[in-house]
Amino acid sequence: MTDPVSAQDQGTSKVPSLQKTPTGIGGLDALTFGGLPEGRPTLMCGAAGCGKTLFGVTFLVKGIEEYGEPGVFMSFEERQEELATNVASLGFDLDGLVERKKLVVDYVRLERGEIEQAGDYDLEGLFVRLGHAIDTIGAKRVVLDTVEALFAGLEDSATLRSELRRLFAFLKTKGVTAIVTAERGEGQLTRYGIEEYVSDCVILLDNRVIDQVTTRRLRVVKYRGSSHGTNEYPFLIDEQGITVLPITSAGLAHEVSSEVISSGVAGLDTMLGRHGYYRGSSVLVSGSAGTGKSTLAASFVDAACARGERSLFFAFEESPAQVTRNMASVGIDLQRHREAGLLKFEAARPSLYGFEMHLARMHRDIDTFNPSVIVVDPISAFRGPSVEVNATLLRLADICKSRGITALFTSLLSSGDSMNDSERNVSSLMDIWISLADVEANGERNRVLSLLKARGMNHSKQLREYRLTDQGIDMVPVYVGPDGVLTGTARVAQEAREREVEQTRQDAVAGRRRVLERRRLAVERQIAELQAELESEEAEVTRMGEQDDVQATNRDADRSVMSTLRGDM
Amino acid sequence: MTSLPPDMPSSATGLPHYKLRLFITGSTPRSTRAIENLRKICEENLDGRYELEVIDVYDRPETTRELQIVATPTLVKVLPEPLRRIIGDLSDELKVLAGLDLAPRQSQQG
């Protein structure tokens, strides 16, 4: 390791490029291109409750666990027990690390009522104390939290200032990478202006409340000798510790797949013309309340899990248990996928965080779970300026696309078929847009699905009625009559009417057939009669002929007798 | 480490016995001044009923943590309770006496 102090003294020409110490905090190392300046103090300032202490603890714990660098935590505010309890929920075992001589937690108690100043003093005692802690375990990392407590505990701020300056120089000579936390002050970075003593790296934490929603943000104000991300980046503190999200728009360079995956609904696959969605596409399912958006999403997830793919379901309106139960009622068994570890739910109220924070969370969850399909149900839960919502979704869609994740977003249409601006904007980000509508006619509601767009697919342009059955979504064969597409009972009624007409026609035919038959029978009978008549006549004639013959014979016989008698010979 | 001979508590007077620790940093002028100032104050006010231990934090750095030492020099009044810390070179005698709960007696004397 280079000794930064002597390196500085030698002038800049011989200084090798700045060495960095990775913090182990996801995202922070990315946006500082490697971590904090090695062997130097970094100032981390922010108002109360920004997570300064947690940053410090994470820096040390990760240093020990991931980089084998022991650390010293000098706390001016919390005792070791308090600190250990506070970070135990993150899975940090401070007491264990202390026992293994990897970590020293030194609580510096400064009680003004207990201290009387009687003459000049210096902070050599603190230096010795810190130096001793560093040397005992060979610490490479140090956190001072919050060093400004000295100002509250001790009088004579002029002495304190010069001693603080000496403290930072002392840290440099010790060659430790340090995080020094400080409270945010009015009009300056820190309350006591200690930023002027720490000049290498300054990180500002912010906890902003907009519309009653808190968003934590981090900004690298200064990083001498290094480039760094200059934006404000959202960060998360939750049971997984700190995650900073260096979110950049991925652009439109991602690879595309022509592989098609099933939507989970056979009839819909057919409508899409390619038997499903392209892998990596963004699908928007919009519709009013109760049109089965979640069910369509669940079908999609069910199909993905059945193929053995990992699915991540972001539920913003229902708890995982509720979604699972509701889907079971339409015959979609999500529980088995959850048990198999293929399906993971991430549920949160949309108002819990700001957009950035939600995106950040989703980004992290996608990173850790590595799903091949995700569902966001619903995106309309995010209320706020449409520009912001739009940007958030665009980035989410980009994150998914760049990883080849097929994403299905549901959106609740505010009223009827009309779309507001934000909905229209969102739709332009999507590759496939499925509209679910409630068609109201003849005093009833029927559900109709249509494909508003499907990029790169020769999709059906028809409206299709569907039903939510206990076997999932069932696409009803389309009925197109002379009056257009009919749905529900209208379709049934129309079908009945047609059946009736057909019946009548059939009845008429049968009637005619019966009449004809009767006539045929009559004619046949007549023919039979005539025939019989003819036959009897024929018989008469025959009989008469026979009589004639007899008579003729008789006459011949008589004549021969008579000629014999006359003696004609 | 310098240790002054502890006198036995003089229960006859009924006055409390003092147990003091002075933390210094080597032989810096400030440390030396602190030791001198304290000896003088003790001899004048706590004659025969105090026990003083002078600790050089360079020699015994672990003691800084045990007794919550931040500034140097620091005089810690371990007994009688309550525990109190007096920081600085102890040149401000009144403050030292106040810190040692000896100021009222001095004002009586004055």
Task: Characterize the structure shown.
The complex is a heterodimer of chains A (569) and B (110). Chain A is α/β, with parallel strands linked by helices. Helix content of chain A is 41%, strand content 23%. Chain A is rod-shaped. With 110 residues, chain B is α+β, with helices and mostly antiparallel strands. Chain B has a single domain (18-104), classed as Glutaredoxin, CATH 3.40.30. Chain B is built from four helices and five strands. Chain B has helices at residues 29-45, 62-66, 93-99, 103-109, and strands at residues 2-3, 18-24, 50-56, 74-79, 84-87. Chain B has a five-stranded mixed beta sheet, with helices on one face. The longest helix of chain B has 17 residues, at 29-45. Residues 1-12 and 105-110 of chain B have low confidence and may be disordered. Chains A and B meet through strand 6 and helix 6 of A and helix 1, helix 2, strand 5 and helix 3 of B.
Given the structure, what is the number of helices of chain B? Answer: 4
* Range of strand content of chain A: 15-25%
CATH architecture of chain B: 3-Layer(aba) Sandwich
The CATH topology name of chain B reads Glutaredoxin
* CA-based gyration radius of chain B: 14 Å
Produce the secondary structure layout.
The complex is a heterodimer of chains A (569) and B (110).
Chain A (H helix, E strand, L loop, with lengths): L3 H6 L10 E2 L6 H4 L4 E2 L3 E6 L5 H16 L3 E5 L4 H9 L5 H6 L3 E5 L7 E3 L6 H14 L3 E5 L3 H5 L3 H18 L2 E7 L17 E10 L2 E11 L9 E6 L2 E4 L15 E2 L4 H7 L4 E2 L3 E6 L5 H14 L4 E5 L4 H9 L6 H5 L3 E5 L7 H15 L3 E5 L8 H17 L3 E7 L8 H7 L4 E10 L2 E11 L9 E6 L2 E4 L4 E2 L2 E2 L2 H79 L3
Parallel strand pairs in A: 3-8, 3-9, 4-5, 4-7, 7-8, 15-19, 15-20, 16-17, 16-18, 18-19
Antiparallel strand pairs in A: 1-2, 9-10, 10-11, 11-12, 13-14, 20-21, 21-22, 22-23, 24-25
Helix pairs in contact in A: 6-8, 13-14, 14-15
Chain B lengths: L1 E2 L14 E7 L4 H17 L4 E7 L5 H5 L7 E6 L4 E4 L5 H7 L3 H7 L1
Parallel strand pairs in B: 2-3
Antiparallel strand pairs in B: 1-3, 2-4, 4-5
